[in-house]
Structure prediction request, 317 residues.
Amino acid sequence: MTSLVVLFAVVASTALVLVVVFPDLLSSNVSGLIVPPALGRPGAVWIAGRVVHESPERGPPPLRALRRLAALNWTGAPVEVTFQGRIARTVTGHDGEFEVELRPAPGESFAPGLQLAEVEAPGARATCAVHVVSDAAPFIVVSDFDDTLAVSHVTSKYRLLAATFFADGDTHPPVDGMPALYRSLSAGRTVAPAFAVVTGWPFQFAPRLVRFLEKHAFPPMALFLRNLGPSTLHGYKEPVLRRLADRFPHPLVLVGDSGERDPEIYAALASEYPGRVLRIYIREADEVGPAHRFEGMFVFRDPADAIRDAFERGLGQ
Prediction:
């Protein structure tokens, strides 16, 4: 999501929030847990989330979107995370956010594959899907969301606002052919790759994105979303990508689109981590730009072309 659109959405919604949503927030005395799907390794698992004063989700999609954005963060809330018999405790920061690292008992390892973690805060419990990435996994696929997985038209602030406030996880349209591309990258493998989405969508929208991915049969994906604030208007993707590259030694396959800065961000990551990036796939979105943006990348309009390229390179089936 573009920084301009994020600012515009926040400013434009303030009056509605004060009139319609804020009274609900003041009357709420329970917490809500937002815990997106996560990634880990046999030797360590990282689980992040946010505790908010829960705002009831009712009404049409625009009102539900405003309620998500307006939910008050709970600072100082105690959080307990349990994963495969290991427990971590922490306290939320100023924005209600938390992250814990859990390690197995000495001499043991976490079981690879899709697992569940239990998360508890005052008045709320949640489960979190965790993909423990096997050391034998062939690679990790890191993807953008807008105009890569979902049709959002990020270069048009009006169409992006419509997608944000007037659609939901069931009605937001996918990019045709992209679920098949992601499934092809894991098909027929004894040990499947892991998938992660790094996006500018606000953290509060994690449940909506999870629903979108499930509805359209994408492989299970970890979600890394943006904390809205002055420090995250720009450059929010790069630190997450570096953190993934540092935490996981696996090769990377990067997927994005031409609409914003995915080509430049991915090229910089490949330069910073030489030999780690197996392939960069860029979907042609509303705007393309000069050819030099895509040097060494596979640019496609039809995902079937990317599927063929992945097959030829031994990345997909």
User: Anything to note?
Assistant: The chain has two domains: 3-130, 140-312.
